[in-house]
DNA sequence: TTAGGATTTG
């Protein structure tokens, strides 16, 4: 990002001539428009361009672009102090889709001037702009390029302000597009047909009604705090809103309002259409709809974003969804899962076999069915037998259940877990029922593969190692929560957390709290103390929060899995150890050949100290030709293991996708980009030290490796009643008081972290019941190319002592 | 037409 110098203050004048003679001093022209004519025409040498003509590589000198201001962002300062202002212009001549708009990025004095005067609906003319690829085009769906404007670049801006007291039709230079009017829920009148927005407070997924249509019941709420229950019918399942969870946001067009039992009620009328959006703050604003043609503008995007923040702050929407590992007997829950098998049972019930990759902590019932009635892949059904659960669905749900495709992703709403009344409690098991009826939204919904929850589930299911029974054990969260012996313990623990903060500041205690709303409306960088609740966090699979960080190039990467390491070792084992490199002044070597068919050669070089071999627990080994399993065994006995391979004249490290060092359970990796591997003999200098400690950092240094650090990277969505913001945790150890380097190989630490997160954000709880967190956060600007965003990071904060 | 939120009782 280039830096722009500060600009001399200039008085605001409205004259055209002044612009011609002294355009650098007067970049922003504010003009009035009355009845379609501007007081002053634009310079004659300027020619109008439309959106289509705004392409890279074309000459835009003496061209201007004109659009309507449909969105503007708060004035902010870039890192170097330059003012920055972004507006979105819409080309009204191209009124059809959402790509009729373009981002304009304004820098320096012009940014400040524009921010002061600009209003929604103004006509905005820009000349002398620079055109560049828009890095946000994929996200915001706007024009592939954006316009960059600054005084320095000799740009000029003309703003035609529509008279605010005059009816829109009178500002005739602006052709006013057909616009939908949306009625707040507290202004609905009996017998009208309206358009409206709402946050889903309750819904019944579409089910087969007793008439001819599918039916879906949806209760909405909006910032007027009025509720509206809508009963929607359609013979086509696809035409009903695609609502997947409470908190989704819908836009209904042409819904009929009627009074029923003294309350307003919505019901489908002819031409009813709906869009549904994910209600998560910060998620992409992509409508779910079956209609091919719909209007969706930036203004509407803003409405969705505002509703999300309102809902996050004001509605009690429960947190992370339940998993099979977290089920309790005698309750109702929603399950996101994959269908593995199905079978008819009798006339009024039907069996679904599903899994979500986690293991139910209780013995579960198996519904007896005839083998020939069971649909699904036999091999898979057998492989997953310990992870699938049987759900018996009844009555009205049978028809829909029969039609489900094996392999599809489902959300089953309001499953009942029933403790079977076995005579001997030791053999009691848990049953899963989807009872008849649609009370409490009971039903089955099919989720598309594009659904973010499905994507996450798929990734997780792929990571489940079916052969590894230990893995399955560790997936039972019942064991993770083992410290809470019963529900009462957990309750009292949570109660304590609701009163005190579950996190504490390690510094800045003298500061007072700032509301999230204030922070969101402020420029970065700044630091704040906050008190907020953790509504949700990412990733939900905690093992995904561990990354490798290079402090030199600041890159983050995934921790390689054991499979990659194994492949690299196999590749290295193809080259036999070079005997010329054995037994030097600083190591002793042994080599042998495996007895199997492969006749693999393994060499181990024991690094000496003072000409002497050390105790195994103090010894560093260089290993050639070993398998993953063999290396693993060696790390159990020796202090350090470095996998190497022979060249003609020296030993060298393997590919840096493999760890350059293994110590105990920990694998140490180097940054591929920043490391310049040096010969292995550099280690002899450490071996010669009086008491070699074999510190990973020291080893990395002599081997020319820029060591990657294990780090927790998480996104916390925090709310405090005034707003919602996403803050990042970037932490080696301090926040969780768990070293990020050790957690992947330590079950105890994993359990501890899971328990900490369960305390900070208890699954399935409503907003009111979430505990408070005290945090210190800093805001900072991130800019790449022309994109500028403010991010927040939690620091100088740690989990309270009695929580961990 | 259907359902009109407010858990089955298998």
Describe the structure.
The chain has 804 residues and is of the alpha+beta class. The chain is 18% helix and 34% strand. Helix 13 links the parallel strand 31 and strand 32 (640-646). The longest helix is centred in the middle third of the chain and has 17 residues, at 298-314. The two termini are 43 Å apart. It binds one DNA strand of 10 nucleotides through residues 202-204, 208-215, 217-219, 229, 231, 233, 260-261, 263, 265, 267, 332, 346, 348-349, 392, 394-395, 414, 416, 418, 433, 435-442.
Quick rundown:
With 804 residues, the chain is an alpha+beta fold.
Alpha carbon gyration radius: 32 Å
Main pleated-sheet profile: 11 strands, mixed
Q: Could you tell me the mean pLDDT?
A: 83
Unreliable stretches covering 5 or more consecutive residues: 1-26, 30-40, 164-178, 468-494
**Alpha-beta content class:** alpha+beta
Shape: globular
- Measured between the Cα atoms of the first and last residue, the distance is 43 Å
Which characteristics define this entry?
804 residues, eleven-stranded mixed β-sheet, five-stranded mixed beta barrel, disordered N terminus, DNA-binding
Task: Give the topology.
Blueprint: H1 16-21, E1 28-34, E2 37-38, E3 47-49, E4 63-72, E5 76-77, E6 83-90, E7 101-107, H2 109-117, E8 123-127, E9 130-133, H3 137-140, E10 145-150, E11 156-161, E12 193-203, E13 207-208, E14 214-221, E15 227-234, E16 249-260, E17 263-277, H4 298-314, E18 331-346, E19 349-355, E20 374-375, H5 378-383, E21 389-394, H6 396-403, E22 409-419, E23 430-434, E24 443-447, H7 452-463, H8 469-474, H9 477-480, H10 487-499, E25 503-505, H11 516-520, E26 526-538, E27 546-549, E28 556-558, H12 562-573, E29 587-593, E30 601-607, E31 620-624, H13 628-637, E32 640-646, E33 651-653, E34 661-663, E35 666-668, H14 683-687, H15 696-702, E36 709-719, E37 724-731, H16 740-743, H17 747-760, E38 772-784, E39 787-795, E40 797-799
Parallel strand pairs: 1-11, 3-4, 7-10, 15-17, 21-23, 31-32, 37-39
Antiparallel strand pairs: 1-2, 4-6, 4-8, 5-6, 6-7, 8-11, 9-10, 12-14, 12-16, 13-14, 14-15, 16-17, 18-19, 18-20, 18-22, 19-21, 22-23, 22-24, 25-40, 26-36, 26-38, 27-28, 27-36, 29-30, 30-31, 32-33, 34-35, 36-37, 38-39
The structure holds one DNA strand of 10 nucleotides.
């Amino acid at each position: 990002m280039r830096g722009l110098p500060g600009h001399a203050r200039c008085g605001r004048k409205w004259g055209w001539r002044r612009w011609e003679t002294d355009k650098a001093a007067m970049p922003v022209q504010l003009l009035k428009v009355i009845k379609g004519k501007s007081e002053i025409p634009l310079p004659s040498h300027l020619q109008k361009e439309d959106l289509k003509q705004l392409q890279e590589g074309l000459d835009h000198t003496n061209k201007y672009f004109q659009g309507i201001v449909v969105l503007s962002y708060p004035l902010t300062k870039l890192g170097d102090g330059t003012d920055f202002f972004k507006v979105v212009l819409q080309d009204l001549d191209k009124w059809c889709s959402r790509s009729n708009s373009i981002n304009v990025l304004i820098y320096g004095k012009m940014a400040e001037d524009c921010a002061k005067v600009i209003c929604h609906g103004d006509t905005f003319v820009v000349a002398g702009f620079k055109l560049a690829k828009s890095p946000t085009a994929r996200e915001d769906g706007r024009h592939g390029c954006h316009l960059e404007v600054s005084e320095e670049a000799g740009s000029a801006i003309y703003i035609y302000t529509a008279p605010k007291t005059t009816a829109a039709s009178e500002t005739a230079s602006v052709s006013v597009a057909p616009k939908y009017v949306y009625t707040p829920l507290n202004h609905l009148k009996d017998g009208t047909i309206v358009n409206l927005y709402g946050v889903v407070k309750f819904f019944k997924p579409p089910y087969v009604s007793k008439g001819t249509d599918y039916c879906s019941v949806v209760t909405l709420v909006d910032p007027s705090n009025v509720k509206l229950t809508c009963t929607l019918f359609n013979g086509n399942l696809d035409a009903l809103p695609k609502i997947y969870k409470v908190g989704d946001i819908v836009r209904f067009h042409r819904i009929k309002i009627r009074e029923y039992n003294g309350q307003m009620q919505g019901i489908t009328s002819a031409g009813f259409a709906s869009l549904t959006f994910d209600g998560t703050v910060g998620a992409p604003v992509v409508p779910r709809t079956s209609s091919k043609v719909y209007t969706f503008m930036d203004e509407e995007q803003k409405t969705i974003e505002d509703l999300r923040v309102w809902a996050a702050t004001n509605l009690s929407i429960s947190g992370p969804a339940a998993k099979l590992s977290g089920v309790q007997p005698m309750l109702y829950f929603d399950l996101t899962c994959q269908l593995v098998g199905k079978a008819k049972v009798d006339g009024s019930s039907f069996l679904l076999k599903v899994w979500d990759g986690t293991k139910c902590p209780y013995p579960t019932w198996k519904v007896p069915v005839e083998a020939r009635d069971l649909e699904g892949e036999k091999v898979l059904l057998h492989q997953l037998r310990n992870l699938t659960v049987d759900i018996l669905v009844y009555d009205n749900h049978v028809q829909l259940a029969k039609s489900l495709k094996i392999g599809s992703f489902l959300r089953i709403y309001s499953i009942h877990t029933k403790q079977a009344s076995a005579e001997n409690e030791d053999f009691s098991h848990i049953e899963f029922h989807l009872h008849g009826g649609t009370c409490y939204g009971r039903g089955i919904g099919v989720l598309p593969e594009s659904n973010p929850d499905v994507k996450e589930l798929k990734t997780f299911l792929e990571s489940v190692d079916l052969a590894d029974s230990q893995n399955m054990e560790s997936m039972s969260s019942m064991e993770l929560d083992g410290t809470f012996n019963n529900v009462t313990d957990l309750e009292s623990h949570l109660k304590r957390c609701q009163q005190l903060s579950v996190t504490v500041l390690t510094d800045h205690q003298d500061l007072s709290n700032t509301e999230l709303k204030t922070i969101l409306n402020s420029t970065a960088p700044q630091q704040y103390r906050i008190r907020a609740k953790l509504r949700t966090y990412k990733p939900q699979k905690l093992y995904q929060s561990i990354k490798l960080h290079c402090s030199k190039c600041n890159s983050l990467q995934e921790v390689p899995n054991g499979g990659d390491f194994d492949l690299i070792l196999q590749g290295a084992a193809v080259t036999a150890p070079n005997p010329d490199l054995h037994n030097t002044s600083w190591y002793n070597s042994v080599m042998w050949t495996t007895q199997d068919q492969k006749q693999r050669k393994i060499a181990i070089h024991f690094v000496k100290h003072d000409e002497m071999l050390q105790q195994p627990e103090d010894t560093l080994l260089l290993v050639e030709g070993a398998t993953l399993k063999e290396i693993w065994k060696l790390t159990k006995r020796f202090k350090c293991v470095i996998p190497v391979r022979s060249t003609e004249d020296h030993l060298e490290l393997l590919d840096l996708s493999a760890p350059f060092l293994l110590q105990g359970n920990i694998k140490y990796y180097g940054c591929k980009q920043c490391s310049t591997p040096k010969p292995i003999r550099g280690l002899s200098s450490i071996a010669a030290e009086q008491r070699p400690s074999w510190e990973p950092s020291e080893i990395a240094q002599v081997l020319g490796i820029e060591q990657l650090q294990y780090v927790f990277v998480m996104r916390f969505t925090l709310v405090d009643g005034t707003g919602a913001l996403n803050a990042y945790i970037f932490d080696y150890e301090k926040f969780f008081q768990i070293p990020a380097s050790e957690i992947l190989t330590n079950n105890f630490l994993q359990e501890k972290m899971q328990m900490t997160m369960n305390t900070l954000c208890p699954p399935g709880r409503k907003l009111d019941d979430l505990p408070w967190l005290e945090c210190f956060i800093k805001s900072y600007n991130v800019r790449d190319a022309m994109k500028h965003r403010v991010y927040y990071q939690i620091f100088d904060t740690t989990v309270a002592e009695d929580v961990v």
